[in-house]
């Protein structure tokens, strides 16, 4: 066993064994004032200044009533959220699963920071989010904060932060399970067990999805090599929480996942896999603290099939990547009306691409390519929230030392002899980012808020070193890419019209300097380049009403986004690729009795463009989803789901008229059990 695998395996075993031992041994716990120890499994409390920024919270009821059972579907209900492509995680290339907020997109890398129990989830090499590994059943809540961030791991929060919080036994029950099937014979199965051990608890969960998939290729464009988007994915996780005293708890998590898909043509196989482990200490005494350490091992493989010969032309057979990091945050006691956060975090991302170029006729290897490097970031941050009567003032400052090192691109011939090699110069930078805001609770019914901020994102190893082809377009890498920087401001109002009836609206102006985009430089040829600026101005609105048995959640985002790259540039004035001007979502739910729920979700996404020059359009699409849960007996419920009931043609890719389609009408039925 090599050193990397040895460290990974032993790190996971130690983390799990330690947490399980602590969870089952009350000898480590000290009783509180009432003789009870409360273990939450959460991080430190949200600070008073958080609402000053444009934030949205999604509760568990909304999470588990998704028509697709997938996290990207739930997040689409948040105004301003988008993936790079409209495809969901059953039919997209995983490397295109970047997520962003506020139309600050344009390439497949995440510009939003996604955290699961405080741990960054983006892939160390590509910067995408492993959506299939984030099972909805295990989540308690989701908080989405739009705009640049400067707190922990803030260097990844260019357009905002998406925080996922795991559920414990109080929400999951001792045993829970779900099994559903679709009209195409696809299945979705998940289960968890969450026993309390001593003063702590353990959650063991698993999920398995499989199906022959749907036709992403329209009927008129299918050829004998065309196939359905077959998929199979599974994930499993063990999470343990144990008290060390009445104010300190230890949280441990390990997870393993794998995802296999076929895209468009027979033999165009794509797979991802990962193994993650983390340990977290949370102290809730007078001196509060949050200490976290994590390790991630990921891999990706992909076969590119020619759209003319329908034979493999590229085999990216191995892309191992590792992410290592941690943080320490301290909240000293500085007064009841003051919350001070002092912290440091560190991330190291490394990876290597291994691929073979193939002769489209014979299948023989024509070139062997390797590329990779190491990105590191260490950040120091301080934030303070001060409450003065009805006013909350918040401000934060962050300094990041970023390093891009050990980058190379190597080409060998079929015999293994080196034909070319480029070793790239080390890049280092210090960047200071900040954010500040104010919240005025003018009355019980009216809250006013305003904020300004800046942000930072390093280019990924993928953007720096890996070229790729989505036939017939080839996109070149660029090892000279610079860090992206964001600046923005916003103002908003939140109105409570009556108990359970709330409305909010936010106006914003955000821009990314040195934005990384896939820029057309020739026929069927693009390169990743820094453009001067992407600017997005718009309005986000949200509404929520809970009146009797009726609940409504709605969101609307209207964004005027454009690229600015100098008066002579063909890009200037054009909308970033894959960015809609308007997106809206509304969910109407009925909860007639305990355990019952009926919900309908209507979504609309406006016109988008596939490319930077707006030559290939993706028409607007409107979809309707339905969800129903009906209690049966002994903790069991009937679950019915319907996706895209209008059977709308959702164009997800358009390359010169060659298009891919998203999920068609899909009906699900099954059983959910909780005890």
Question: What would you note in describing this structure?
Answer:
With 675 residues, the protein is mainly beta. The strands form 5 sheets. It has a 27-stranded mixed sheet that branches. The chain has a 5-stranded mixed sheet with strand order 1-6-7-4-5. β20 (391-412) and β21 form a beta hairpin. The relative contact order is 0.14. Residues 1-33 have low confidence and may be disordered.
Short description:
This protein is mainly beta and 675 residues long.
> What is the 3D shape?
globular
Number of strands: 38
Enumerate how many helices there are, as a single number: 5
- Rounded mean pLDDT is 91
Q: What CATH first level would be assigned?
A: Mainly Beta
Please give the domain count.
1
DSSP strand content: over 45%
Q: What is Rg?
A: 24 Å
CATH architecture: Beta Barrel
CATH topology: Maltoporin, Chain A
User: What are the segments in which pLDDT stays under 50 over at least 5 consecutive residues?
Assistant: 1-33
Give the distance, in angstroms, between the N- and C-terminal Cα atoms: 42 Å
Overall SS class: mainly beta
Features:
675 residues, mainly beta, Maltoporin, Chain A, 5-stranded mixed beta sheet, 5 helices, globular, disordered N terminus
How is the secondary structure organized here?
Blueprint: H1 3-23, E1 55-59, H2 60-63, H3 71-75, E2 81-83, E3 99-101, E4 112-116, E5 119-120, E6 139-146, E7 160-166, H4 169-172, E8 175-182, E9 187-193, E10 196-197, E11 200-211, E12 231-243, E13 248-262, E14 269-283, E15 288-305, E16 312-318, E17 321-331, E18 338-358, E19 365-388, E20 391-412, E21 418-423, E22 427-441, E23 446-457, H5 461-465, E24 468-470, E25 473-476, E26 484-498, E27 501-522, E28 525-547, E29 550-564, E30 582-590, E31 597-605, E32 608-609, E33 617-618, E34 621-631, E35 636-643, E36 651-655, E37 658-661, E38 666-674
Parallel strand pairs: 4-7, 25-28
Antiparallel strand pairs: 1-6, 2-3, 4-5, 6-7, 8-9, 8-38, 9-11, 10-11, 11-12, 12-13, 13-14, 14-15, 15-16, 15-17, 16-18, 17-18, 18-19, 19-20, 20-21, 20-22, 22-23, 23-26, 24-25, 26-27, 27-28, 28-29, 29-30, 30-31, 31-34, 32-33, 34-35, 35-38, 36-37
């Amino acid at each position: 066993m090599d050193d990397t695998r040895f460290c990974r395996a032993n790190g996971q075993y130690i983390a799990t064994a330690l947490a399980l031992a602590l969870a089952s041994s009350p000898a480590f716990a000290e009783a509180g004032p009432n003789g009870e120890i409360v273990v939450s499994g959460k991080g430190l409390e949200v600070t008073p200044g958080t609402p000053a920024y444009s934030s949205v919270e999604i509760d568990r009821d909304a999470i588990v009533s998704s028509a697709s059972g997938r996290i990207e579907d739930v997040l689409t209900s948040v105004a301003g959220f988008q993936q790079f492509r409209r495809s969901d995680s059953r039919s997209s290339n995983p490397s295109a699963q970047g997520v962003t907020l506020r139309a600050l997109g344009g390439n497949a890398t995440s510009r939003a920071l996604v955290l699961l129990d405080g741990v960054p989830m983006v892939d160390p090499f590509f910067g995408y989010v492993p959506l299939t590994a984030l099972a909805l059943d295990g989540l308690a809540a989701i908080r989405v904060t739009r705009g640049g961030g400067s707190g922990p791991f803030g260097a990844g929060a260019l357009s905002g932060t998406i925080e996922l919080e795991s559920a414990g036994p109080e929400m999951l029950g001792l045993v829970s399970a779900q099994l559903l099937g679709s009209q195409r014979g696809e299945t979705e199965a998940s289960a968890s067990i969450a026993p309390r051990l001593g003063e702590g608890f353990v959650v063991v969960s698993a999920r398995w999805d499989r199906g022959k998939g749907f036709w992403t290729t329209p009927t008129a464009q299918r050829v004998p090599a065309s196939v359905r988007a077959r998929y199979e994915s599974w994930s499993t996780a063990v999470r343990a929480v144990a008290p060390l005293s009445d104010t300190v708890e230890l949280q441990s998590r390990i997870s393993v996942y794998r995802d296999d898909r076929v895209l468009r043509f027979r033999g165009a196989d794509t797979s991802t896999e990962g193994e993650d482990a983390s340990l977290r200490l949370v102290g809730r005494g007078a001196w509060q603290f949050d200490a976290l350490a994590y390790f991630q091992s990921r891999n990706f493989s992909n076969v590119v099939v020619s759209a003319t010969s329908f034979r493999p032309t590229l085999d990216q057979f191995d892309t191992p990547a590792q992410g290592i990091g941690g943080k320490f945050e301290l909240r000293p006691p500085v007064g009841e009306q003051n919350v001070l956060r002092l912290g440091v975090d560190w991330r190291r991302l490394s990876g290597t691409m291994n691929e073979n170029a193939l002769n489209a006729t014979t299948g023989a290897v024509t070139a062997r390519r390797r590329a990779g490097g190491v990105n590191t970031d260490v950040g120091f941050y301080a934030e303070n929230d001060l409450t003065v009567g009805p006013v909350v003032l918040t401000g934060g400052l962050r300094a990041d030392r970023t390093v891009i090192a050990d980058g190379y691109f190597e080409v060998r011939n079929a015999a293994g002899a080196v034909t070319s090699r480029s070793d790239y110069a080390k890049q280092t930078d210090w960047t200071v980012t900040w954010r500040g805001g104010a919240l005025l609770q003018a009355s019980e019914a009216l809250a006013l808020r305003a904020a300004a901020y800046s942000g930072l994102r390093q280019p990924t190893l993928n953007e720096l070193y890996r070229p790729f082809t989505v036939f017939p377009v080839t996109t070149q890498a660029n090892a000279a890419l610079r860090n992206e920087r964001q600046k923005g401001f916003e103002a908003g109002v939140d109105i409570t019209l009556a108990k359970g009836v709330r409305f909010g609206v936010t106006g914003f102006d955000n821009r990314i300097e040195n934005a990384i985009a896939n820029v057309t430089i020739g026929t069927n040829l693009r390169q990743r380049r820094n453009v001067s600026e992407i600017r997005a101005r718009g309005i986000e609105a949200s509404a929520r009403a809970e009146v009797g048995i009726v609940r409504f959640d709605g969101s609307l985002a209207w964004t005027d986004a454009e690229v600015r790259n100098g008066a002579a540039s063909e890009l200037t004035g054009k909308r970033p690729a894959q960015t809609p001007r308007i997106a809206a979502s509304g969910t109407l739910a009925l909860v007639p009795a305990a355990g019952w729920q009926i919900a309908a979700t209507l979504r609309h996404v406006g016109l988008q463009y596939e490319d930077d020059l707006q030559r290939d359009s993706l028409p607007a699409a409107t979809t309707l989803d339905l969800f129903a849960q009906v209690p049966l007996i002994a903790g069991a419920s009937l679950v019915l789901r319907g996706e895209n009931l209008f059977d709308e043609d959702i164009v997800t890719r358009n390359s010169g008229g060659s298009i891919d389609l998203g999920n068609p009408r899909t009906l699900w039925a099954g059983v959910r059990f909780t005890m």
